[in-house]
């Protein structure tokens, strides 16, 4: 009797994973018959890692156009249903750990189902684009056969559990956090207590408090390795943090417990999940993350709720069993004995690559090597060759990193020269890992429906320019990080970068112009210790000059040992704004039409369909003037925040939102009173209730930022509250600009 390929795969697949894929296949059939509601199916496919994606970006990748034709649609026309077009599938890679066999399978899938490209994300996942959902069950089965699941890679669930890729080899870590990250992933995957979240929940582990590899401070749940001596015995455990997050308005994680013994880690995580499911927002997605629960209750009250929950939780033998099982069986096993480098002849380029991409392990005779992946991309052919190199040099010890690269661990030092030569042969021996050249970027307008500006296009341009001048860069400049997001949501992690950018739109004489907000002074180290603040919105085509100016001044003016963060603070927001004022100017379309195109796109830039509006044409110039005033007030608020004047910063940011709201209201009622209550009331009635103010972005309702601050008043303002309102004011103003832009186009008869 002949065995089918599905039966062969099933024999290698965990029964639970196989059953889940069968269920999803049945759900797909029900949806096609109209027997399953779209919003229910949407959450089910998201929980399987299947996303929709955009097609109006003007970019072209090998094979995409023909595949789109094969699916019976064009790239420039949106699909009628999710079944009409290819989408993106995210593959969940706990702690970034990959084997050679898994790389081989993903290479096959990229070639057969996608467009020969694999993309590493900032959360150690792998994404593939332009995959038709009809093929998803077979795609899932082939992954499951090599121990990979896409379950809960997306949706309102526990996302990928990330961890420092150097765990287990780091020279100064407290201990290897890999088995604990794996245990948490296995424990929470599909757990009943995580099925009723209002939004996603992102965990992270770090082996120490000082490096950036785990980025615990920006996560919903974070654990930092710690050893405590109790009764003369060294006990492993974790400092546990909760309620961090980036998104449109970043929140610092709060210390939940200074020391949680390892055997309590899973029950504590379960208790936190239960409180989040019970008390988290369900209707307003903009406030549905756990950071808002922590902010509302305060960390003391939140901690009390979790402790109460843990008392009533049924005992689970996996609390201790999973950690013991994985702790004893997850250590990476080297393929070859470690040997020191023996004076072999060095090929051209090796010294530069070794200086930035090779890391000495704590295990004598071994090194780890970073494979630099520009934009996080590598081809299916390169993936196969990398799998071969893993089998040749280090075995199954590969890790994806949060800066969108791959890390090969346990390479005998004596083999590193040959390893470099083999990398060069497949085009993956670029130096510059963890330097300013190694720019991080989210997918942006290339494939994300929320993208505003081309983050990948800008990242590619910056990388090209910085690489060309790399030999001339000051040493301190080389150590900086650049991170780019295509929108407010910070998927590119712009808030925690030395130099960060996020995409925004501006209207100039009736035309949309791609811009980026400039974010300076974020701190990447110490697990993302602090966030930068916006300085100015600059046309996309002027962003390379922004990088040149700020890095050039830092190189010339810094004092001995002065960090970039300290330098930015010393300059102050006013000086920084003055430095970029001329770059904010946009020439007319007749003078330079290039400003009206985005990086990597030859078409004229459009902001996409963001809703419709109407206003009186004669007051548009007044709106521009008043919105500029609100931007000035928002900038003043950021200066006050920088100066430690938190109540004043809060008040000025609130005033900036009022000014932006009033600017819009004046299009309907020129003589609106200055009374704040009246402005808020008129704005709500004339713009929010009528849906002229399209203020939702990725679930965040920017109008609520004004309403919540107005209702709160000026009481209870500390640094965190002030910083949040300053961030929210900038986003509210961006939404007001967007509203004004759409209304002006409506007047001009331009379809929006």
Question: What this model shows, in words?
Answer:
The chain folds into five domains: 5-144, no CATH class; 170-329, 2-Layer Sandwich (Sulfite Reductase Hemoprotein, domain 1), CATH 3.30.413.10; 350-425, Alpha-Beta Plaits, CATH 3.30.70.3340; 436-608, Sulfite Reductase Hemoprotein, domain 1; 614-752, Up-down Bundle (Four Helix Bundle (Hemerythrin (Met), subunit A)). Helix 7 (178-188) packs across helix 8 (265-279) and helix 7 packs across helix 11. The protein has a five-stranded antiparallel beta sheet. It has a five-stranded antiparallel beta sheet with strand order 3-14-15-12-11. 41% of the residues lie in helices and 15% in strands. The longest helix is centred in the C-terminal third of the chain and has 30 residues, at 719-748. The protein has 24 helices and 22 strands.
Runs in which pLDDT lies below 50 for 5 or more consecutive residues are: 57-80, 609-621
Supply the CATH architecture of the largest domain: 2-Layer Sandwich
Gap from first CA to last CA? 60 Å
Helices, by number, come to 24
How many discrete structural domains? Answer: 5
The largest pleated sheet is described as: 5 strands, antiparallel
Q: CATH topology of the largest domain, anyone?
A: Sulfite Reductase Hemoprotein, domain 1
Overall number of strands: 22
Principal-axis shape: globular
Strand content: 15-25%
Percent range of helical residues? 40-55%
- Give the CATH class of the largest domain: Alpha Beta
Report the mean per-residue pLDDT as an integer: 86
């Amino acid at each position: 009797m002949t065995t089918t390929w599905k039966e062969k795969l099933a024999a290698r697949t965990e029964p639970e994973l196989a059953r889940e894929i069968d269920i999803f296949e049945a759900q797909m059939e029900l949806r096609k018959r109209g027997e399953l509601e779209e919003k229910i199916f949407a959450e089910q496919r998201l929980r399987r890692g299947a996303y929709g994606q955009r097609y109006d970006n003007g970019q072209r990748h090998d094979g995409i156009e023909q595949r789109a034709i094969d699916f019976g649609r064009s790239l420039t026309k949106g699909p009628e249903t999710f079944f009409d077009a290819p989408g993106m599938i995210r593959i969940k890679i706990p702690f970034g750990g990959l084997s050679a066999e898994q790389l081989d399978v993903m290479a096959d899938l990229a070639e057969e189902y996608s467009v020969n490209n694999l993309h590493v994300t900032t959360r150690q996942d792998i994404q593939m684009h332009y995959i038709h959902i009809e093929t998803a069950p077979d795609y899932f089965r082939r992954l499951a056969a090599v121990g990979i699941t896409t379950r809960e890679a997306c949706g309102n669930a526990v996302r990928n559990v990330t961890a420092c890729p150097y765990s287990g080899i780091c020279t100064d870590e407290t201990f290897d956090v890999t088995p604990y990250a794996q245990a948490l992933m296995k424990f929470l995957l599909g757990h009943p207590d995580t099925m009723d979240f209002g939004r996603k929940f992102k965990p992270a582990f770090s082996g120490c408090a000082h490096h950036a590899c785990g980025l615990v401070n920006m996560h919903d749940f974070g654990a930092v390795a710690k050893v405590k001596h109790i009764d003369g015995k060294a006990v492993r455990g974790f400092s546990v943090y909760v309620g961090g997050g980036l998104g449109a308005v970043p929140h610092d994680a709060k210390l939940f417990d200074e020391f949680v013994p390892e055997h309590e880690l899973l029950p504590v995580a379960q208790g936190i999940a239960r409180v989040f499911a019970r008390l988290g927002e369900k209707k307003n997605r903009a406030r549905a993350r756990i950071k808002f629960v922590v902010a509302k209750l305060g960390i003391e009250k939140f901690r009390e709720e979790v402790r109460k929950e843990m008392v009533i939780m049924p005992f689970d033998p996996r609390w201790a069993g999973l950690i013991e099982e994985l702790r004893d069986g997850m250590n990476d096993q080297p393929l070859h004995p470690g040997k020191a480098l023996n004076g072999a002849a060095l090929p051209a380029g090796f010294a530069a690559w070794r200086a930035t991409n090779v890391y000495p392990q704590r295990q004598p005779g071994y090194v780890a090597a970073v494979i630099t992946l520009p934009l996080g991309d590598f081809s299916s052919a390169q993936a196969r060759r990398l799998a071969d190199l893993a089998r040749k040099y280090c075995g199954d010890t590969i890790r994806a990193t949060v800066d969108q690269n791959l890390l090969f661990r346990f390479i005998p030092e004596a083999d590193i020269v040959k390893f470099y030569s083999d990398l060069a042969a497949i085009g993956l021996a670029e130096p510059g890992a963890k330097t300013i050249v190694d720019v991080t970027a989210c997918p942006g307008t290339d494939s994300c429906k929320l993208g505003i500006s081309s983050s990948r296009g800008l990242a590619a341009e910056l990388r090209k320019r910085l690489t060309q001048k790399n030999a001339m860069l000051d040493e301190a400049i080389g150590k900086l990080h650049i991170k780019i997001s295509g929108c407010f949501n910070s998927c590119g992690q712009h808030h925690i970068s030395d130099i960060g950018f996020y995409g925004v739109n501006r209207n100039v004489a009736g035309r949309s112009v791609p811009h980026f907000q400039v974010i300076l002074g974020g701190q990447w180290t110490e697990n993302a210790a602090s966030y930068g603040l916006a300085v100015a919105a600059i046309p996309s085509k002027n962003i390379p000059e922004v990088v040149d100016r700020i890095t050039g001044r830092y190189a010339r003016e810094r004092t001995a040992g002065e960090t970039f963060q300290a330098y930015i603070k010393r300059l102050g927001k006013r000086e920084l704004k003055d430095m970029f004022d001329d770059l904010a100017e946009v020439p007319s379309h007749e003078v330079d039409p290039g400003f009206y195109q985005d990086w990597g796109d030859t078409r004229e830039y459009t902001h996409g369909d963001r809703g419709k509006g109407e206003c009186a044409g004669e007051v548009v110039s007044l709106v521009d003037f008043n919105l500029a005033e609100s931007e000035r007030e928002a900038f003043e608020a950021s200066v006050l925040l920088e100066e430690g004047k938190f109540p004043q910063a809060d008040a000025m940011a609130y005033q900036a939102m009022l000014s932006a709201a009033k600017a819009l209201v004046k299009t309907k009622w020129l003589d609106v009173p200055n009374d704040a209550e009246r402005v808020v009331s008129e704005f709500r009635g004339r713009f929010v209730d009528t849906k002229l103010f399209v203020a939702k972005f990725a679930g965040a309702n920017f109008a609520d930022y004004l309403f919540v601050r107005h209702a709160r008043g000026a009481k209870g303002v500390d640094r965190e509250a002030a910083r949040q309102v300053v961030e929210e004011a900038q986003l509210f103003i961006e939404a007001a600009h967007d509203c004004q832009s759409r209304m002006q186009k409506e007047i001009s008869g331009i379809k929006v």
